[in-house]
Write a structure and sequence with these properties.
six-stranded mixed beta sheet; globular; 8 helices; alpha/beta; 186 residues; single chain
């Protein structure tokens, strides 16, 4: 059995999502936020997905996330919505169009002029969410908003605001860093 569910922030902190990682330029980051560690923990994933499913407005008829992290989270949000009695199908948004099977950027066909809620594990600059928004719009769909587990506060909210897409973060990186800090000082 998993640990008892506490607040989302404490649960995320308990999975120890900060790791050492190298950037593309070789710079060592001592406290890189790894969203995959968050989504890989069943309790954290379930809590985040349930919180998102509760927040996504009823006008959204699909939840979508870019492969890889976003698509897994979209599936979890879809299941959490179903547990709440709401049908909210999940769709994977591909980074590159597929040329066989179901072709294009979407993993499966959707009705014309569908309304999407976008989800992802973390938001940094917002490039992935912007890319997904622009691709969905080019296909004739609407994006009602974007939801992330953690906002790194690197400009994603501002970038999406320029597209008229509100960004909702369950937590900011600063909030995540300070969770439990009062316990660490004791």
């Amino acid at each position: 059995m998993s640990r008892p569910a506490g607040t989302l922030a404490q649960t995320l902190r308990d999975v120890n999502p900060f790791i050492q990682a190298r950037r593309g330029d070789g710079t060592l980051l001592l406290d890189y936020l790894d969203g995959h560690r968050i989504l890989g923990d069943p309790t954290a994933l379930a809590m985040a997905a349930d919180a998102m499913a509760f927040q996504i407005p009823t006008e959204a008829d699909h939840v979508g996330g870019e492969a890889v992290a976003g698509s897994g989270l979209a599936l979890a949000v879809s299941l959490a919505a179903l547990n709440r009695g709401r049908l909210l199908p999940a769709r994977t948004l591909r980074q590159h169009p597929k040329e066989h099977g179901v072709v294009g950027f979407l993993s499966t066909a959707v009705p014309p002029a569908s309304t999407f809620a976008l989800v992802d594990d973390v938001a940094g600059t917002g490039a992935a969410l912007e890319r997904s928004t622009l691709r969905l719009r080019a296909l004739g769909h609407h994006v009602v908003g974007a939801w992330v587990v953690v906002d790194r506060r690197n400009g994603a909210a501002e970038r999406l605001a320029r597209l008229g897409v509100p960004l909702t973060a369950l937590l900011t990186i600063d909030e995540l860093r300070t969770v439990g800090s009062h316990l660490e000082k004791a």
